[in-house]
Amino acid sequence: MTREELIAQLDAWHEEDEFQQIVDEINLIPTSFIDDELAVHLGRALNNLGRYKEALKWFLKIDEEGRNNPLWHFRVGYAYYYLDQNEEAAQEFEIAHQMDPEDEDTLTFLEWSRNEAAAQPEDN
């Protein structure tokens, strides 16, 4: 399978909600060969499977150029949100919102994260 075919297959599985297929296929690739594009696919699939810590690990491996994307910040915020790390989530959603002010999902999660962060008791 060529790289183009692999990416097309990963996209197709995403559209079909076959997230475990994505994880299984990428896990066949040696870690040293998983570049930013594959890390995004893997992180997104792991987020969709509720495996947020693993997703975050892959998102945080992505280089600075890959991080200059509102969708990257949204996905990282999403993982933080579901790990109950609401302050970190709010920070990421805020960046995503600044980069793409029209995205409704970002605004929704930004509001939820802020509200839940405000409601959390301070650690003493």
E-strand count:
0
Return Rg in Å.
15 Å
Q: What class do helices, strands and sheet pairing give?
A: mainly alpha
Poorly predicted regions are: none
Shape: elongated
Strand-residue fraction?
A: under 5%
**Overall number of structural domains:** 2
Arithmetic mean of pLDDT: 95
Gap between N and C termini: 55 Å
Task: Output the CATH class name of the largest domain.
Answer: Mainly Alpha
Report on this model:
- The protein is an all-alpha fold.
- It folds into two domains: about 1-65, Serine Threonine Protein Phosphatase 5, Tetratricopeptide repeat, CATH 1.25.40; about 70-124.
- Helix content is about 75%, strand content about 0%.
- The protein has helices at about 5-15, 20-25, 35-50, 50-60, 65, 70-80, 85-100, 105-120.
- It is elongated.
- The mean pLDDT is about 95.
- Keywords: TPR repeat.
- This is Tetratricopeptide (TPR) repeat protein.
- It holds the Pfam family TPR_8.
Give the topology:
Elements: H1 3-15, H2 19-27, H3 36-48, H4 52-59, H5 64-67, H6 70-82, H7 86-99, H8 104-119
Task: Quickly describe the structure.
The chain is mainly alpha-helical.
Which key terms come to mind for this protein?
124 residues; mainly alpha; Serine Threonine Protein Phosphatase 5, Tetratricopeptide repeat; 2 domains; elongated; TPR_rpt; Tetratricopeptide (TPR) repeat protein; TPR-like_helical_dom_sf
